[in-house]
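dumping this here so i dont lose it
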């Protein structure tokens, strides 16, 4: 499992990628509200969208220009995290 932020993580099996909120319990981490995707690109787009949606919901994103800026920043951050684990 790759933890991208406190709000989102990506994991995979031989058939698909899963994106959801990481829930840590003891020695393991599980995904809450997982959604499944056939490609890493689709999973990454969903992870960014989920984080942006959470920002709009909690009021930290209130303008369209913020959406664009946050999307670009998150996508770059998440890509860098994925590079760190050689995905």
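and the seq i came up w/
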């Amino acid at each position: 499992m790759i933890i991208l932020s406190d709000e989102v993580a990506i994991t995979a099996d031989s058939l698909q990628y899963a994106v959801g909120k990481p829930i840590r319990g003891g020695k393991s981490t599980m995904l809450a509200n997982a959604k499944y995707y056939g490609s890493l690109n689709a999973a990454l787009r969903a992870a960014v969208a989920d984080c942006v949606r959470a920002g709009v919901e909690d009021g930290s994103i209130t303008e369209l220009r913020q959406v664009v800026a946050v999307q670009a920043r998150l996508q770059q951050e998440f890509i860098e995290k994925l590079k760190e684990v050689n995905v």
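The first helix runs from residue 40 to 58.
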